[in-house]
Specification:
Elements lengths: L2 E5 L25 H10 L4 E5 L5 H13 L3 E7 L7 H9 L4 E7 L12 H13 L3 E4 L5 H10 L5 E3 L15 H11 L3 E5 L14 H14 L4 E3 L12 H11 L6 H15 L3 H4 L2
């Protein structure tokens, strides 16, 4: 079973995608399963993990409803506001759905990344760690220190870092991202990473394969073959690259030692295990 561990669907008319505006014409239209299916078929991808793109419970409900109609959606990563006292009630409502696999903590959008260290957020994440609930961590490389401190306080969190923490690929800067990522991987065995969202961190018009190789190989070296997963970040990737190009960027950067077993984990099995989609992991 092959799986894209990170993609989005949206309908503009729903009105809660404040970051998608007419000034971004590539993204300012509906993106739905019928638009993605040809790409999935071309790359022999059976299922996807559908990830929230708006910070609203209404969008999570929309995605869950969509997953009931679309078999290729293996799981939905929703949204929760852990700073609100109603987070547990909202989680329990979502968790009733069989395709709800976890939620995403959008540190990237926080004016102060250290807000994730507030007692109510740490308390909530400690609760989810106890339940072994998967949590996506959307973070930019300059915010990694906050993530380091957060995981020191919630060391048992079942987390995955989206988009390899968005390093400064456009500028070719590796540090302190590289050291922080390696440190997190070594210290927290339940932490995974998504090899996704890299093309949009490079120069959108003039990126080269060489722009990504060092970042991809460092991530693979840090996390090993069992805690990495491919994600297209479609359709956001279209700002810089096609679906085909996103796949090619990753596959061309893989070390020669990566055999079929490692590729099977990267392109599906790790994501199925992380999100506890057992029936797919066994296929």
């Amino acid at each position: 079973m092959r799986l894209d561990a990170h993609q989005h669907y949206w309908k503009i008319e729903r009105g809660d995608y404040g970051w998608i505006t007419p000034e971004i014409p590539v993204l300012y239209r509906d993106f739905l399963p019928e638009h993605l299916k040809p790409h999935l078929q071309q790359h022999r991808l059976d299922k996807t993990i559908l990830v929230q793109a708006a910070p609203t419970l209404e969008e999570t409900e929309y995605l869950l409803a969509l997953s009931e109609q679309e078999d290729s959606i293996a799981g939905v990563v929703g949204w929760l506001d852990l700073a609100q006292p109603s987070w547990l009630r909202h989680y329990e409502l979502c968790a009733r759905h069989p395709k709800y696999v976890g939620f995403r903590l959008m540190i990237q959008d926080m004016p102060d990344a250290y807000a994730v260290l507030e007692p109510q957020v740490v308390e909530a994440l400690t609760y989810f760690a106890g339940l072994d609930v998967p949590v996506d961590l959307l973070v930019v490389s300059h915010q990694l220190d906050a993530v380091v401190q957060l995981l020191d306080r919630v060391p048992g969190l079942r987390g995955v870092i989206d988009h390899i923490a968005k390093p400064r690929i456009r500028e070719g800067v590796m540090e302190p991202w590289a050291s922080q990522l390696a440190g997190l991987a070594a210290k927290h065995p339940k932490l995974y990473v998504k090899l996704s969202g890299m093309v949009t961190e490079a120069d959108h018009e003039s990126w080269q394969q060489e722009s990504f190789n060092a970042y991809i190989r460092h991530t693979l070296d840090s996390f090993g073959p069992d805690r990495v997963m491919f994600g297209s970040d479609w359709p956001v990737c279209l700002l810089a690259a096609s679906y085909d190009q996103v796949v090619d960027v990753l596959t061309q950067a893989l070390p020669a030692s990566y055999g079929e077993a490692e590729k099977a984990r990267l392109f599906g099995l790790n994501a199925a295990e992380f999100y506890r989609i057992r029936k797919y992991a066994e296929e």
